Every structure is written in C-alpha cells, then in structure tokens.
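Box 3.1 A note on notation
Throughout this textbook, protein chains are presented in two layers. The first layer is the amino acid sequence; the second is a token string describing backbone geometry. Keep the layers aligned when reading.
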Amino acid sequence: MSWYDEAVFYHIYPLGLTGAPKQNPYGEPEHRLNTLLPWISHVKEIGCTALYIGPLFESVGHGYETTDYKKLDSRLGTNEDLTNFVAECHRQGIRVILDGVFNHTGRDFFAFQDIKKNREGSQYKDWYCNVNFWGNNEYNDGFTYENWGGYNLLVKLNQHNPAVREYICDVVRFWVSEFDIDGIRLDAADVLDFDYMRALRQVAEQVKPEFWLMGEVIHGDYTRWVNEGTLHSVTNYNLHKALYSGHNDHNYFEIAHTVKRLYGMGGNRPDGLKLYNFVDNHDVERIYTKLNNKAHFIPVHILLYTLPGVPSVYYGSEFGIEGRKERFSDDSLRPALALSDYKDAVEKNSFTRLIAALGRVRQSTKALSYGTYNELLLTNRQYAFSREYQGETVLVSVNNDDSDFVMTLPAGNAAGYIGVLSGERVTAEGGRIAVNVRADAGEIWIPVTENSAPQKSDFEPVVLEVRIPDAPEEKAAEKGEKVTEKGADGTRREAAVTKSVPEPKKAAVSSDAAAAADKEDDAGRKAFEEGRIAGLQEAILAIMEKNGPVTDQMRRDVKENVYHDSLISWIKSFR
C-alpha cells in the first residue's frame, strides 16, 4: 500500500488558471504561482489528497515546448516560488506531481539552439531524431528533424541516446532535490521508448520512497506501460469515454464492459492495475458540457469515485463550469478562475457539495481504494456493483433513468446499510436489501452491524440535485410559467416547472434482473463495440488537436473510418 493507492487527485493547468500570457516574453518573473496558494486549502476541503499540476517549466507558449527543464516558467515566478508552493501543499497533507515533458523539447531549448548555431559541428546533433542537414523547414533552419505529430514546434528527443537519458534522469533528480515533489506525469507516454521509461523508473525508486510515475496514454493495452519495470499508472481514456457516452446513450453496458475488460487486464486483482481515472482534463471538453442531461453529473461522479482506479478532478469542474473545444484553441478548457468567485461553494454549490462528499467517503472507505470489484446488476439504465475489502462490502448503485428504480441487492453479513450521500438507512432481510435509487442519481451504501452502527453525525447527507445556472426552468418558475423541453426523440413539448415525482420502478430480485440483463447483453456488446470505435476516433482527433489545427476534412476522414484495425494502425502512425 502506497499513498497513491488511496489518493484523490486535483488537476491544475497553471498557465491557464493564473491567466498567464499565451506567449512567454522571457521577461522578469511574474509571481503568479503564489496566487494559487489559497487553492491548496480548497483542494483539501473538497477531499483531494494529491495535486497534479503542470506544465510548470520555462516554455514558449502552452508549456509543452520546453525551453528550460530546471527553471520555473517566468510567467509563473521563480524556483523559490515553486519550492514554497510544494512545501505548503505538504504542510496541508497534499502530495504533488508535476508534468514531465520528456518526449520532445521546444526550439528554444539549449541543445536545439546549439544545432542551429553549429550545425554538423554541434555536440548535440544526436540529441534529436533524424536531424538532416540536407533539408529545410518552415523556420528556414537549413535542416530538418523529426517532430511530435507533424508539429515542428515540438522537436523529438532521441531517447536512445545515453546522453539524453542521463540528462532527463538528472532533471528528475533535480526536481526532487530542489522542489521535493512526489511524482511525475509523463507527457505522451504512449510514444516513449520503453527502455527510456525503465531508466526513469529506476531513478524514481532511488530518489524518494513511493515516488509515483503516471503516463499519458490515449489508447492501447495499459499493461504494456503499467508494470513493475515501467510506470505505476496511466491515464484511463477508455473509462473517460465510457463514463460520458454511457450516460448520454443510456447505456450502462458500455461502462460495465469497459470496467470488466480493464479490471481483467490486471488479473481481476484490485492491486493489479491502478489507472488514473478522470472525466475531463486540459485536453478534453468539460464533463458538464459533454453531458446531454446535466443531472447525470451525479451518477458520473459517483462512478468516478467508486470504480477501480485513482480518481481525479480537473480544476473548476467541481463548480460545474462549461468548457467546449474550439477549432484552433483549447483556451476555454483552461480558463483563468478566481477562487473568490466560488466562496462557500461547498455549502452553496450543489456540484461542489457532491464532490466534497465523495472525497470524504473515498478517504474514509478503504474498500473503494483496495476492494475487489463485483458486478451485481446491469441494465441499460441501472448499474450496481460491490467493492469488498477485509470482510467489508460496499455497494454502489446508479440510475441514469428519469424515474426512480428499486434494486434488490445482496447484503452479505451486514445487518443493514446506510447511504452516505442521502443518510438513508435500510435493514437487511433474508440476506438482501431493497434500495430506492433516485432518478438520475445514485448512492454508496456502507454496511452497518449491530455492534458498530455509525452515528448519524458520521455522515452528512447531500442533497442530490443539480441546479443548472440560469436554466429556463428557474426563470419560468419565478413567473409560474411553463417551459419547453426537448424529449429523447428530439421533439419539443411543454412541461410544468414543478413535476410530480414518478412512482419508482421496481426490480425483481437480482436474479431476475440478471436474467433480463442477459437478454440485453447482445445489444450491449454491440453498443460497446461501437463505443470502442468512437473511442479510437476520439483518441486520433485528440492527438491531432494537440499537435496543431485540425481541418473539417481531417475530422471527416477520422469519423468516416469505422474499422478497428485501421484506426489502431492510424494511432500507431503518430509514434
């Protein structure tokens, strides 16, 4: 057991959050990083125990075209600012990992500048891949080189060069000795050489106990990267896609099949594959933007915090903010925010209140970090599973339907359960419990025994509702009017602002539910395969958008390719 096994991460893109200029003037340091110090207590308040922040080091623009690995970006401040920032995180019990952009550098990096100056005579000409002094490029360098994804601003490092490896390993040692960080997220890990990653793992084991290496991997067999010799974890883009599309399509089969496949990669052991789970980040649209039904914010995050893996929240999403990809810019995904604008959000903002409650539950419930996973009930619109650890079984139930649903679930040896979000208590009868799962919501059920029933004060019930800012319903409600809604079939209809609560749908005993699920399984598998194709297409577009402008024709080319093997080959072509 290590700190990262129980971690709940908070993710900050610092150049965006601080409102730094888009281009680096390389002027006097601006101490913007210090403005993030108040965010540390916010991170702790919402139940996060670790911070992933980056990129941080001197660069040209967005941070991934590194100019100097050993100097904090002057738009953010000085190295002393970063040292103090990490120290304050540690004082408040927050671990810190930084972005390691070790696949490529920017053109202002000293080694590349030396090649421009000395050409064939440069001692660094072998630091980059395929430098050709017989060619030229759009910068009129008088030579060409291999870049990352067709984008010459990102010059690809020669990871087979021992001098490059030693330099990067020295950077890691420097970051630990200078800033006392706890781990590194490796950018573009899916194109890093495996021997290169093994060298980084060796350094990680030397510099600090439980130093964590997590890699950015868009798609593939995650066990290639997550093992004893390379990385501890990778980004779980498979689950990311399933979580939002599984709700938008009312298809819990996609989520359940994805979890089953990923869990199987780790040998069905909770310690076999600890993936970094997320619903949005600095490269993809905000979860609140992607969800067709905004109320699904609730079950999506319940699953994020309870399924196998390490959960992460991207800054601002705990407030329910929007963020949509633009054609030539990710700026809307990386906004400047003032924490003062969200004062008392844990009490006043239903999104933040939910995230904080889930953070408390995750920290106090070992089964959610270490427990085995077992699927209990699965339909297109309802899903339940258990996490069992050291004799304690935690039950999780979610519902993406617009009506309540009653589930009958195995209670194990527990006398009853308490829903930690609602505070509701249920008593076991005949080794089972019947629980009502509210529409577009969910619950985490913690067992109670006759000898150790938790006191009511142990759990602070959360009002499970999502208030949509400036929604037409709210404005109409003030006037007692009706509003127009769009139905699932695309038609519009008038609906009263105040709706009566529908009668809960009742499930038969779980065996009957399982039988019904079997009948739907073929359709679910088909939907799952379609989801895999969509996930691959999204992965390709994500890589393209990360590397430069994507035209409408390029998007059409990707969307029209619906062949699994072809898409896999396309992804590999970026390496």
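The radius of gyration is 25 Å. The longest strand covers residues 382-389.
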